[in-house]
Automatic annotation (TrEMBL):
Function as written in the Swiss-Prot or TrEMBL entry: Phosphorolytic 3'-5' exoribonuclease that plays an important role in tRNA 3'-end maturation. Removes nucleotide residues following the 3'-CCA terminus of tRNAs; can also add nucleotides to the ends of RNA molecules by using nucleoside diphosphates as substrates, but this may not be physiologically important. Probably plays a role in initiation of 16S rRNA degradation (leading to ribosome degradation) during starvation.
PROSITE patterns to which the protein is assigned, alphabetical: RIBONUCLEASE_PH (PS01277)
Domain Exoribonuclease phosphorolytic: from-to ranges: 10-139, 157-222
Name this polypeptide is given: Ribonuclease PH
Lineage of source species: Bacteria, Pseudomonadati, Pseudomonadota, Alphaproteobacteria, Kordiimonadales
Length: 237
């Protein structure tokens, strides 16, 4: 029995509120159970310097956790003067995930910045961020197209992410903190709506996991990402 009482293939309740931030070109307040993340997408008229005269744009991301998003207060990274390796790794993951479904040529020499701020953490903050980032990105791209900044829509697919793991010998979907902190294997899957695999992060915390267990986790991830995709479609189309 999982601590939450969920079935092995059962997600936490997923909620997405698009347009949550008044001033951003795209935004989404996403909840995976008790993990809550505010995501915004900001349009910038120029691309990074290394893309000058290439005709291509860019999508990048930043990620952060508020001081009391966890059980005890953490210092703001800005106050410390540097980001942790975890923060850098997660925001690069979010950026790669978004670029995987964007035609950068259609975007032109422009940039979209995705900001993911974790308000409350209970496991799966990076996967909630990616899933919410798609909604914010879609809003921003719709706005760019409708306002005439771009001639064709740059999104080529949908994308979602979910965690899976081996908890007490069982493959389970969408780990919360109680499971994540005790799982013998922890993995994050980033999948497109058409079934493509963008990224898989998998780690054995104790003994190595088998190929059979990996395939079970992948099957669970497909179930979870399909469910997330349905929520995305309901809120943004």
């Amino acid at each position: 029995m999982r601590p939450s009482g969920r079935a092995a293939d059962e997600m936490r309740q997923v909620e997405m509120i698009p347009g949550y931030a008044k001033h951003a070109e795209g935004s989404c307040f996403v909840k995976f159970g008790d993990t809550h993340v505010l995501v915004t997408a900001t349009f910038e008229q120029k691309a990074p310097p290394w893309l000058r005269d290439t005709g291509k744009g860019w999508v990048t991301a930043e990620y952060g956790m508020l001081p009391r998003s966890t059980h005890s207060r953490m210092s703001r990274e800005a106050a410390r003067g540097n980001q942790t390796g975890r923060t850098q790794e997660i925001q690069r993951l979010i950026g790669r995930a978004m670029r995987a479904i964007v035609d950068l040529t259609a975007l032109g020499e422009r940039q979209i910045r995705i900001d993911c701020d974790v308000i409350q953490a209970d496991g799966g903050t990076r996967t909630a961020s990616i899933s919410g980032a798609y909604v914010a990105l879609k809003q921003c791209c719709d706005w760019l197209y409708n306002e005439g900044f771009i001639e064709r829509h740059p999104l080529t697919d949908t994308i979602a992410a979910v965690s899976c793991g081996i908890f007490e010998g069982q493959a389970v979907l969408d780990l919360d903190y109680d499971e994540d902190s005790a799982a013998s294997t922890d993995a994050n899957f980033v999948l497109t709506g058409s079934g493509g695999i963008v990224e898989i992060q998998g780690t054995a915390e104790e003994e190595a996991f088998s190929e059979e267990e990996f395939l079970r986790l992948l099957r669970l991830a497909r179930i979870g990402c399909t469910e997330i995709g349905k929520t995305q479609k309901q809120v943004i189309g």
